[in-house]
Amino acid sequence: MQTLTAKFRTLEFGEAKTYLVALLFVLGNIALPQLCHTLRMGGPTWLPIYFFTLVAAYKYGWRAGLLTAILLKSAVLALVAGWTAARFRRVSLLLLAGVVLVYQTIGTLGEWALAGDLSTAMQDFRLGIPGMLLQIFGGRAIIGVMNRNRYAR
């Protein structure tokens, strides 16, 4: 399994680039779900609303990820991905799989506590396996491309 030594940049709340990056990733978090929802069960299957939050937090830190987050699980994802990237300073399929598993587990417990229905809270684990795999493999690919692009540094 190949590990990519990534060029990470933790953006601060006081930097204009933080808000520009967040805006671009929020647009992605709006556009990708719209595209996926044109397919039957596309949203629950592909989990598109989390994809750009994962990339933003992993590449630019928890602050950029949190600004990109839309839902409870997105906020948890931003924090977990940002911490993982800062802690390990590299990206691999194993690390991304760990990020996805941790945020899905914590988010599911939070949704269960809020909704009071375990079956509804477990929906991503029942239907969203393709989306989780997209986050892992697609996230790794996008972060790799961003590392080679001088404008994304």
Low-pLDDT residue spans: none
Query: What general form does the structure show?
Result: globular
How many strands, which pairing sense, and closed or not: the largest β-sheet? 2 strands, antiparallel
Total E-strand runs: 2
Q: Whole-number average pLDDT?
A: 91
Q: How many DSSP H or I helices?
A: 9
Gyration radius, rounded: 15 Å
How many structural domains in the coordinates?
1
Helix content: over 70%
Write structural notes for this entry:
With 153 residues, the protein is mainly alpha-helical. It has helices at 16-36, 42-46, 51-60, 62-68, 72-88, 93-115, 118-121, 123-127, 129-148, and strands at residues 3-4, 91-92. The chain has one domain. It has nine helices and two strands. Strands 1-2 form a two-stranded antiparallel sheet. Helix 1 packs antiparallel against helix 3 (51-60). The protein is globular.
Keywords:
single chain; 153 residues; 73% helix; two-stranded antiparallel sheet; 9 helices
Short synopsis of the structure:
The protein is mainly α and 153 residues long. It has helices spanning 16-36, 42-46, 51-60, 62-68, 72-88, 93-115, 118-121, 123-127, 129-148, and strands at residues 3-4, 91-92. The protein starts with a strand and ends in a 5-residue tail after the last helix.
